[in-house]
Structures are given as structure tokens and as C-alpha cells.
Amino acid sequence: MNTIKPLEKLNVFSFKGVQMRTFHITWMTFFVCFFGWFGLAPLMPTIKETLHLSKSQIGNIIIASVSGTIIARLLIGRLCDTWGPRKTYTALLLLGAIPVMGVGLANSYETFLLFRLAISIIGASFVITQFHTSIMFSPAIKGTANAVAGGWGNLGGGITNMVMPLIFSAIVGFGYVKADAWRYAMIFPGILMLIMAFMYYRYTKDTPSGNYDEIERTAEQKSKTDYSVLKDWRIWALSLAYAVCFGMEITFDNVAALHFVQEYGLSQSTAGICAGAFGFMNIFARALGGIFADKVGKTYGMRGKGLLLASVLLLEGLGLIMFANAGNLTLALLSMIGFALFLKMANGATYAITPFVNAKNVGLVSGIVGAGGNVGGMLFGFLFKSENITYMQAFAYIGLIVIAISVIIFITRFSEPKKALELNLA
């Protein structure tokens, strides 16, 4: 079989070639996964009323919504190295669609919590997205490609906050009561996931040269996952960074609509639009982080990328503190846009470094760093669960934590790799 090299440039307007076709299907699939993963979040004001949920129970639901992803991301990284991203993504979509469409059967806090936990495995889709994109593009453009794919996929978190309340309202308009409308609304993201499972399996390839089975890569790769890489402190530093940027992103996706309803008295639809503005920043902000990281890397190497990541984390933390102290809705929205910009840039900058830490174990490293994001989201959930801490105070505490992590990233030495970081595709 002819060996096809990873692309040297990213032309987002092109669909030609296996690399660009896979790139576009990958980010669109990740986009759809957010509808399944966070489709319930903007409907929580109604669900809270329907199931008579307390603040503590909502906190547990927030924690559950990201907890299953932690283990799933670690497993998914290994599966990408062995099964290949094509089969792994297809299986995840098919499996994840079941609880997404089945959550409407929940009639109590306990059953809803279990469904929310099952749905959380969908978050592992991010690892496959970044792994697959890393294979399709050369090191010089890898950070940008990862950031664009991840950012456009994460955009689903914002669009979900805007669209799901509209679907809910449309179902109510057909004569269904609100207590049933949120249940039927979740069928929509489940169907989208099934469609993307077919698209992914049919129209993508594991590598530019073909699927693992076709190029006999699977057997070769089974012996290549080296768990000694876990001794590398840089992996854990990046996990901490991702815990406070992506971890904060999924936390905010979970609580934003409910926060705007409770704090500023907005309707569910209006709160969804405000929360959606946060996610909508992904259309360019995460890509911006990857682009800047690639440019900085060309001049200042990996150390420069690390300093960029530390800087945007610091600004994210300051923005969160400003959001926590906003006295009115206007200031809250302005500060939200501010910290959203730097948070999403930090996401992109983190994964502009991650593929270069250990080129032979990209799946494993991506899985660990990705899992760090969900650990952060889970731990932040405990702040929003507490009866003694307001949502505003929780945002302020998280801001201080982000600033502390930025200092850790600043002092971490992200050295240059010893060899050219081309993935072994043959």
C-alpha cells in the first residue's frame, strides 16, 4: 500500500483527500457529541422542578455528568492505539446514544443520576478527536489542527445551550406538558449520534495511508504503549492545566443556564442564549490558542508554548474572579466573554503541547491529559454542590485555583523532543 504523508497545511475550506475529509467529519462528530453530553444542561430548570431536585442533588448530577468520562478517556486512549480511531469512535457513538435517548425514562433523582453517569462516557470523544487529528497533520501544523477541530467541536456545547431549549419549546408547542417535553427533546441528540456513527465508520480512515487493518498496524502497535511515560511530570502538569481550563468549561456548560435563571431571573430560553454565548467562543478562541502556540513554538520552542499556556491560564483565572464579582447581568456577560476567551485559548495551547510529549504513545498521553479535564470538572462540581457556598463564591474559588495552576505551568520545563515527532504510520 502507498504511504500517504500527513498534511503540512490546514485548509479548512477543503474537503479533498482523506486527511481533510477525516478532519471535518471528526470535528462535526465531536460537535454532535456535545448535544448528547450536555443536552440536559439547559433544560435543568425544568428538570429540577419536575424531579423536585435540591441544590445538593443537582451538584451530584453535575459531578456524575463528567465522572464516567475520566475512566472512559483513559481506556479510549489505549483503544485508539490498538483498534484505531475509526472503530473506537463508532463504538462510542453507538453505545452513548442508548442512555441519551433513554434518559427520558427517568422518574426519580436516583434513576436520572444513573442515566447522567452513563451519558458521561460520551466525553471520551475528545480524546479520539485529538488523536485522529494528530495522525492526519504534520508536527508543524498539528497544534493548529487540534485546536480548530477541538474548538469547533466544543462549539457544540454553546449551540446545545441555545438549541435544546428551542426544541423543548417546540415540543411544548405541540401540546406536550413540560414534564414530558424535556424527555422527548433528548431523542434528537441520540438520533444525531447514530447518524454520525454511520458517517464516521463509512467515510473516515484511521491514518492517511488507510485503516489499521489495511496497513497491518494493529498488531505492531499493541506492544508500543509504554506506561513508563507516566513518570514524566510534564504529562501531569498538562493534566492540571486541562483540569482548570477544559474542566471549567464543562462545569460552566453544566451550570450556566441554571445560574442565569437563579441569579438574574432570566427565562430558560434566554438563559440558554446567554450560556450559549460562552460556548460560541469556541468558533475561534480554541483555534487561536493553537495557532499562537504553533507560532510561538517556531521561535521559542516548547518552552515558549509552556509560557503561553501559563499566561492564558493566569488571565482566565482573573476573568473568573471578575465574573464572580459582577454586580449585574451586563458585567457578568462581559466578564464571561473575557474569561471564556482565555479559557478556550488555554484548551488549544494545552493540546498544542500534548502530542509532542511522547510521540509513540500519543493515545495514552492524550487520554491522561484529557481525563485531567474531567477530573477538574468533577472536583469543581463539589463546590456547586455545597449548601454553604453560593455559585458566585464557587466561581471565585475556581479563579484562584486557576491562577495557582498557571504558576505551576510557568515553572514546568517543556523541553524539546529528542527526535522528529512524526507518528509511525507504516
Automatic annotation (TrEMBL):
Record keywords: Cell membrane, Membrane, Nitrate assimilation, Transmembrane, Transmembrane helix, Transport
Major site of localization recorded for this protein = membrane
Bilayer topology:
Multi-pass membrane protein
Do you know which InterPro entries this protein is assigned to?
MFS (IPR011701), MFS_dom (IPR020846), MFS_trans_sf (IPR036259), NO3_transporter (IPR044772), NO3_transporter_NarK/NarU-like (IPR004737)
Major facilitator superfamily (MFS) profile domain spans which residues?
22-419
Q: Which residues cross the membrane?
A: 21-38, 58-76, 88-106, 112-131, 152-176, 182-201, 233-252, 264-285, 330-350, 362-384, 390-411
Q: Where in the cell is it found?
A: Cell membrane; Membrane
SUPFAM superfamilies tied to this protein: MFS general substrate transporter
Q: Tell me its family.
A: Belongs to the major facilitator superfamily. Nitrate/nitrite porter (TC 2.A.1.8) family.
UniProt cross-references to PANTHER family, sorted A to Z: HIGH-AFFINITY NITRATE TRANSPORTER 2.3 (PTHR23515)
What name does UniProt use for this protein? Nitrate/nitrite transporter
Give the species. Aquirufa ecclesiirivi
Organismal lineage: Bacteria, Pseudomonadati, Bacteroidota, Cytophagia, Cytophagales
